[in-house]
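Researcher: I'm comparing several assemblies side by side, and this is the next one on my list. It has 638 residues spread over two chains. Same procedure as the others: predict the full complex and return the structure.
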Amino acid sequence: MSQIKLKLPDGQFLDVKKGNTVLDVAEQIGSGLAKVAIAGKVDGVLTDLRTPLLQDADFEVVTKKSDEALEVYRHSMAHIMAYAVQKKYPDAKFGIGPSIENGFYYDFDLPAKITADDFEEIESSMQEIIKANLPFERKELTKEEALDFFEKKGQKYKVELIRELEDQPITIFRLGDFVDLCRGPHMKSSGEISAFKLLSVAGSYWRGDEKREMLQRVYGTSFRTPKELKAHLDMLEEAKKRDHRKLSKELGLFSTHEEIGPGLIIWHPNASRIRHVIEAYWKEQHYKHGYELLYTPHIGQSVLWETSGHLNYYQDSMYSPIDIDGANYYLKPMNCPFHIMAYKSELRSYRDLPLRWAELGTVYRYEKSGVLHGTMRVRGFTQDDAHIFCTPEQMAGEIREILRFSLSLWRAFGFSEIKAYLATKPAKAAGKDNEKWEQATEALKNAIIAEGLDWEVDEGGGAFYGPKIDLKIRDALGREWQMTTVQFDWNLTERFDMTYIGADGEKHRPYMIHRALLGSLERFFGVLTEHYAGAFPPWLAPVQAVVLPIADVHIPYAEKVLAKLRNAGIRASIDTSDDKIGYRIRQAQLKKIPFMIILGAEEAEEDKVTVRYRNGENKKMLDLNEFIDSVEWRKADI
RNA sequence: GCCUGUAUAGCUCAGAAGGUAGAGCACUUGCAUGGUAAGCAAGAGGUCGUCAGUUCAAUUCUGACUGCAGGCUCCA
């Protein structure tokens, strides 16, 4: 038997017998290690413990504590769940069952519908499987053997998958009576798993294709310990509490109406106040960053959308035309053509560039009814849009500037964890303008690196008209939201035949960059609401302070304090209802108002105020002016 | 759009073998002027999402539609 050479993480080499399994090697390194081994990593690929090693490789043992082990756990959980489902429905056909962030799922084709009521039964069946401590048995088959095996079982989805597999041999895993096509890796046995819970069931298309069969997908979550599981379930609870749709009802933020139409948002006074503050800050910052602001119409004639190409490529997302005097007008799904028309209304010189034109532009897009979600996904929304027209030489600097600007906005709104995704040339743009693509992609990459952002490449994720950067921001619950997008566009400049006169006196094509920093105000507002759980920081809070006189006799003094607060530009209100002070404090607390100014005989006498902070903290007998000075009522540079 | 649920007062939710409904909060009024998360009492408020079907009778059963929810696909 020949030997192979494995390179361990510490740089040492280990000679082992060819054909030894990952587990054998772990054993060789140390029996303690073998005990805690969950899988191996061979040349960076997660590999099952039972896999024989056939050639020299970088070798690493994945132990219980690593994140990769958690993936293995969850993937194994998916098999255990599938086994439980097979016990309940022997005719079940199986789709796929991977591990995902925070859990796992499995897709089933079943003779009956699974509902949440079935979870308890399936869970206890899973418990039994775990208790039985059944081994996961790995077996290698040829493609023919595998096809034969699953065809006999009537597992048509597995057969379809195997047909497309090129790797030989094909591996299957057996757990009790459940045999699944699977690359692995898996645990040694089902008993090594402890904390799990089934969460939900939903439909999902086979292979994500809406023309294919609809399968039933059961989602579950699992962790190494019950404690971690509980922490995750608590987080889900917390997310429910923070749901912007729920908070909207509690705080009076927005509404939608069947009579108006789905996905169309009515902003109520409190949300409108917040939006006003956001917009005011946004506009001020844009002027500071060298932008000009534009206002453009909501509709435009068909010829505009023909030129832009939207009627060709984007019509599915556009609403039917409106006939005006025999001409077809379309509601705008994007603002760019209008900005381009503004550009084209004059002859432009290279001396005019760059032009940075921004607009809070409200657009309308047809979104499938099933995707609508609160203010996060709607049919009418306002983008914080801008278009930058520049020379090719200016491009890199402009990108850099946009990123920096975006980061400063996110910081201002209280978000600090940001990740960039560099979307490169897609297959459909293949061949064309390679040099341009490379240049622009390079500029985007350099900007990301210069800003010190965490990032990864989204290979082929760019639009057909140019590469882009998307920024995802992480909220207080650790959830990621895609917000900022910065996109190159060589298509529209061409279609609209945009030009500028260069230093050489000749016409040149400008570069165009689309960008939205917050994304859309509706979506941003939803994220902001959930991030702060409705307890907006003072500068954003619709009501910043409420004045609460203890009893009627204190109203005159309270009015005086209210006037002073308002004079200082603070959004303050007064609650003179005849409820007792405890009740009014409760009301203010439920409305998450940052400051309660409580005034009674003592305060009136000494011309002081008592402040109750939103967190319950109480500061008695403060000087009003000193209190006012202690709070950031507005972002410094508004 | 597709799958699975779901729809009762402004909100959160009960409810009936098919005989037109109830609580808490909110709201209105009265009493109480009360120092840090719900004072007391009374009152008002619903064609039980819409339209059909079955039935002597439908808010309850059936179907369609619409909205909403969780997913899938798509996306700011």
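Model: For your comparison table: The first helix of chain A runs from residue 22 to 29.
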